[in-house]
Amino acid sequence: MTLSADVTCRELGLLRHGQRVLDDITCAFRPGELTAVVGPNGAGKSSLLQVLAGVLDASGGTVSINEQPSQSIPAAERARLCAFLPQSELPSWSVSGADLVALGLLPWGRVPDRDERVRTALERVDGKDFAQRPVTQLSGGELRRVQLARLLVGQAPLLIADEPTAALDIRHQLQLLQTLRGIADSGKTVVLALHDLSLAARYCDRVLLLEGGRLRAQGTPRDVFTPAMIGEVYGVSCEFRWRDGEAEFVVFDLI
Ligand SMILES: Nc1ncnc2c1ncn2[C@@H]1O[C@H](COP(=O)(O)OP(=O)(O)OP(=O)(O)O)[C@@H](O)[C@H]1O
Questions:
Q1: How far apart are CA 221 and CA 209, in angstroms?
Q2: pLDDT tens-place string over residues 103-120
Q3: Beta strand pairing status for 206-211 and 214-219?
Q4: What domains, with CATH codes, occur in the chain?
Q5: What interface predicted TM-score (ipTM) does this complex get?
Q6: CA–CA distance from 21 to each of 3, 41, 44, 129 (Å)?
Q7: Is the confidence at residue 2, as pLDDT, over 70?
Q8: Whose CA is nearest to atom 6 of ligand 1?
Q9: Res 137 pLDDT > 90
Q10: Cα(29) to centroid(ligand 1), Å
Q11: Which residue numbers delimit the ABC transporter domain (predicted)?
Q12: For ligand 1, is residue 214 a contact (CB within 6 Å)?
């Protein structure tokens, strides 16, 4: 079983319905790193994550995982390497929370400690109470936490989540980012699309800032999150206050 995932993208491009939505993206995602992909609506964050996860094929360039072109990795192996949570996903069947989480173990076939793994994954998102509930009867944030448990349950070396905090209350946002930080610290590669720049600044090692399908900046949050850069890309005036490793992001107004 592969325990780590070293991901490199070279000159990635993507066309969707004839429109170029990713252009010349070169970047890397290393084991032990928590990376935030940020940028305005339509910048290409979800598209990039879908290409990384193998859900979409790039129109040009390459993605390699552990130096192997990702398209040449057999689907079953790729499913064990990478767990992906799309931006939105509504359940079509009224399965229980526990059964939905267990879907995250499918790539490993019969797992002897399945029930224990599912229970632990649900506990990590504070979702024990949802194990026996039909997922069609959960609130938006409760369902998201069950889906996050499904992402975590397989302990894949590469975790990719598209706006994982969007439906969560503040407490569960912090709890999730702390959990993902710990998972990255244990040597896994974690990539998130985030709109919350405070969370990205506080918890992530690296930031990729996309604008119009292009990589506008990449580096540490301190490198990328300058008032000038955020002003240019988002059209807002703002300030970042850095204190003892904590970041406070304050938005003042539209520019
Ligand atoms: N299924 C699709 N077919 C065609 N074009 C699409 C499709 N999905 C997204 N796009 C277009 O691709 C571009 C990038 O979209 P994408 O969803 O990657 O942006 P995003 O940065 O994730 O945005 P958001 O913050 O709104 O989620 C946009 O111009 C969008 O209109």
A1: 10
A2: 999 999 999 999 999 999
A3: antiparallel
A4: 7-92+156-254 (3.40.50.300)
A5: 0.98
A6: 32, 12, 6, 40
A7: no
A8: 16
A9: yes
A10: 22
A11: 7-237
A12: no
- The rounded Å distance from CA 91 to ligand 1 centre is 22
Query: What are the tens digits of pLDDT across the range 151-166?
Result: 999 999 999 999 999 9
This prediction has a pTM of 0.97
Q: What string of DSSP letters covers the chain?
A: ------EEEEEEEEEETTEEEEEEEEEEE-TT-EEEEE-STTSSHHHHHHHHHTSS--SEEEEEETTEEGGGS-HHHHHHHEEEE-S----SS--BHHHHHHGGGGGG-S-TTHHHHHHHHHHHTT-GGGTTSBGGGS-HHHHHHHHHHHHHHT--SEEEEESTTTT--HHHHHHHHHHHHHHHHTT-EEEEE-S-HHHHHHH-SEEEEEETTEEEEEE-HHHH--HHHHHHHH-EEEEEEEETTEEEEEEEEE-
* Mean pLDDT, range 195-222, rounded to an integer: 97
Which residue lies with its CA nearest to atom 31 of ligand 1? 42
Index of the ligand 1 atom closest to the CA of residue 19? 5
